[in-house]
Amino acid sequence: MGNDLETREKLLACAREEFMAKGFANASMRQICTKAGVTTGAVYFFFKDKEGLFSALVDDTYQSVMQALQKHLTEDAKEDLASYVHEPGDHDPFVEEIIHVLYANHDAVTLLLSKSSGTKYEHVVDQVIDMIDSSFGENAIRTCDSIPGKQANRYMIHWLSHISVMTFVHLLTHIKDEKKALRFMKPAMEHLICGWTNYILEDKQDNE
Hints:
The protein is an all-alpha fold. It has helices at 2-26, 29-36, 41-47, 50-77, 92-104, 106-114, 124-144, 154-174, 178-199, and strands at residues 150-152, 201-203.
């Protein structure tokens, strides 16, 4: 049992190095196994296949990020946009939570963002954008029921969803220290919230 655990951990360490250097598509199973001192059969035994090996490195982080995001979106969806008043720092707990998850698992996040082509995770950025776009779009439509003459600004909602996600992507690729990232992201989030609150709705005649 101890040897199995040691072999599995060695495979994961060598796979992380290979995937980080070459990405999933170009990574060599043979090279991973040679570095780990095992045959390719060990990969099939522990992980089923190459993608299973990649998944073992990233899936816990992927699930944690998605759960934190879904929790945040669910809480935001309860807000009545018609009467919502943003107070500075309202979103600090979410920023702190998501930044900590991302930076505590920086290698896994890097693999998800830029090394996952060819896996089921390759569209993770688009998936997150779609989640945000859908949640805020539905909330905006509900809000319009109580505000005559207003409609959801669908283009702006999608653009803001994209900008919000890419702000985190930029952060992860340019700032390596978690504390520095947090100092940047808190005011950046305040800026993003101003965009959401000011432009998520538009006058109906704007498109007439």
